[in-house]
Design brief:
This protein folds into 2 domains: 345 residues, ABC transporter type 1, transmembrane domain (ABC transporter transmembrane region fold); 238 residues, P-loop containing nucleotide triphosphate hydrolases (Rossmann fold). The protein is built from 22 helices and 10 strands. The strands form 2 sheets. A 6-stranded mixed β-sheet has the order 6-7-8-3-9-10. The longest helix is centred in the N-terminal third of the chain and has 47 residues. It is a multi-pass membrane protein.
């Protein structure tokens, strides 16, 4: 089982500077997202302001308990200091409680509103930022899912479904979540860094100069770390996507895996692919650890210097115990703010890796959904000078100058050896693939000019060899693609498909759950539900791709009867290797070597060497 990794080619975003994605992230914000971010930011500013007040408040409380000469609104006679750096100057109030008695209690009571404002602001901040993250993640998931669903079939042949699902789930969460978290951390870090710097300069300019030396050290450390981590995270993500792609393929084909006893093989392969990420993950972890160790060592060294110089100034009477305590707290805030900003740079770099993936996908060109809609489809089909090769094998032509005309109401059986282009012919007609050159026409109109969604929903119905049913009720599966169907239309389609009697014999009748991919039903029952789904819209054209080849004799006879009813009054394209099916066709086509080598009645084509060779191999 091959495993692929998603590669987005020919994107408008290829080669763009990474911060262009950040700019686009901001521009694309919708009104409700902006509102929640704005309210959250206001609450964050309020919360940050209260945080800046706490160190001054703590210092004032300490001084009020360690010296009797401190009083609000007066000069400290014993130390020669004025309380200009004290609590009352911070708030611009003097004698708030009307006197100097019980200063300690007064400060405590003054602190209560601060704590209440801080708590309320924190609630508003968390709620609004969380809501904004949810809305942005949802928007990206919807945009990405829409883009994926509107890609042509060749896109999915070149991509891993597991990797795409990982992009849809993980990248759409990691990108917005990390960016908004970094935005919050950045504002708080700026508050701590600049607010702390302002306050320590007021408290002691001499000590402040020593403390602020730490900032450029953090900046240079962060720059080096950011460059390293960007490359490592991109590589780690690429390797993980490969593992997720393999896991997705194995889970999608779990029956085949179990039939062949390959469970341990798939487990070992998935484990090996994850282990291939180990070296990169180890380097990332070591870089994270080294970065944080450097930052903390710088903070601790700075704090030791501050405490040493501060004690010297305190012994000389230039600073009080409370002011030194306030200074130390502000110094810690500066250190944490600087380290946070340093870390934010690296986290934003990681987030932009996810954001790049998101925009690389949602900016992929989508299938044309607008175009002509024919009012009265007759059912004439024409392939005119069609040349086709698959995207991954452009040098090998499945069709080379193919010409074919099918009249309205005509049933055509298509036979050929494996790889001759039988199913490809159906894919070209259904517009899931485009001809390399030439054109396919419906009622003399080039199908490339038609609205593809309208075309597939109204022009034809498909019954394939292995019908896909979704995990829902029988009723939902029959009217899938025709959501406005009435109950009577569903019942009528089921009757024509010889499945109604079976359905009504079930305890829950049409509300019976079919399970994942119809696992609760037999192949014959699934096939008849697929026939009902194909004809409920009453399409003028019916496509049958080996519709009975996987059935046993008993089921086949019931399904054949349903197919005969479904074929009445319709143009039919039928890929089959069963003579019983070919006898129902007006014309049989034999494909070989890029073209039609025989055409006519079953009796006529039976004389063809290619036809005889095919049936000698299959009988």
């Amino acid at each position: 089982m091959g495993c692929g990794q998603s590669k987005w080619r020919n994107n408008a975003c290829d080669g763009c500077p990474v911060f262009d994605y950040l700019k686009k992230f901001v521009i694309d914000l919708e009104s409700w997202e902006k509102l929640h971010l704005f309210i959250g930011t206001l609450a964050l500013v309020s919360s940050a302001a209260t945080n800046l007040a706490y160190p001054r408040l703590i210092g004032s409380i300490i001084d009020s308990t360690t010296t009797k000469s401190i009083s609000i609104g007066s000069t400290d006679i014993s130390s020669g200091l004025t309380p200009s750096s004290g609590f009352e100057n911070l708030f611009g109030i003097y004698n708030f409680f009307g006197g100097s008695d019980s200063t300690f209690k007064k400060l405590l009571f003054t602190a209560l509103p601060l704590y209440m404002i801080g708590s309320l602001s924190s609630y508003i901040r968390v709620y609004n930022f969380q809501k904004a993250k949810y809305l942005i993640e949802k928007r990206y998931r919807i945009q990405m899912y829409r883009t994926l669903m509107l890609q042509g079939l060749p896109f999915f042949h070149l991509q891993s479904s597991g990797s795409l699902l990982n992009n849809l789930v993980k990248d759409c969460e990691d990108g917005p979540k990390t960016l908004i978290d970094c935005f919050v951390q950045f504002l708080r870090a700026c508050n701590s860094l600049f607010g702390g710097a302002f306050n320590i300069i007021l408290l002691s300019p001499k000590l402040a100069g020593t403390s602020l030396l730490i900032i450029p050290i953090f900046a240079f450390t962060a720059m080096g770390y950011s460059k390293l981590i960007k490359k490592l995270k991109s590589r780690e993500k690429e390797l993980q996507n490969g593992a997720f792609g393999c896991a997705g393929e194995a889970l999608n084909g779990v029956e085949t895996v179990k039939y062949l006893g390959m469970e341990e093989f798939e487990i070992d392969k998935f484990t090996a692919m994850l282990q291939s990420v180990d070296n990169t993950a180890d380097i990332v972890a070591a870089a994270d650890g080294g970065f944080m160790a450097t930052i903390l060592a710088g903070i601790n060294a700075c704090m030791l210097v501050i405490m040493y110089l501060g004690s010297e100034q305190m012994s000389q009477g230039f600073i009080t115990v409370g002011n030194l305590a306030s200074f130390s707290i502000y110094g810690g805030m500066i250190g944490l703010g600087a380290s946070s900003i340093s870390k934010i740079v690296t986290e934003v770099t990681k987030a932009l890796v996810s954001l790049k993936t998101i925009y690389d996908i949602i900016q992929l060109p989508m299938e044309q959904q607008s175009g002509l809609k024919l009012h009265d489809v007759k059912g004439k089909i024409e392939f005119r000078n069609v040349v086709f090769s698959y995207p991954n094998r452009k040098d090998f032509f499945i069709f080379n100058n193919l010409n074919l005309t099918i009249l309205p109401g005509e049933a055509v059986s298509i036979v050929g050896a494996s790889g001759s282009g039988k199913s490809t012919l159906l894919l070209l007609f259904s517009t899931l693939f485009k001809p390399s050159s030439g054109m396919v026409l419906l009622d003399d109109v080039n199908i490339d000019t038609l609205d593809s969604s309208w075309y597939r929903r109204h022009v034809f119905g498909v019954v394939s060899q292995e019908p896909v049913l979704f995990n829902g009720t029988i009723f939902d599966n029959i009217c899938y693609g025709y959501q406005n169907a009435t109950a009577e239309e569903v019942y009528e389609a089921a009757m024509k498909s010889n499945i109604h009697d079976f359905i009504v014999s079930l305890p829950n009748r049409y509300d019976t759950m079919v399970g994942q991919n119809g696992v609760m039903l037999s192949m014959g029952q699934k096939q008849r539900i697929a026939i009902a789904r194909a004809i409920i819209r009453d399409p003028p054209i019916l496509i049958l791709d080996e519709a009975t080849s996987a059935l046993d004799a008993g089921s086949e006879s019931i399904v054949q009867a349903a197919i005969e009813r479904a074929m009445e009054g319709r143009t039919v394209l039928m890929v089959t290797h069963r003579e019983t099916n070919m006898k129902r066709a007006n014309k049989v086509l034999v494909l070989d070597k890029g073209g039609i080598v025989a055409s006519g009645s079953l009796k006529d084509v039976s004389k063809c060497d290619v036809y005889r060779r095919i049936f000698n191999l299959t009988i």
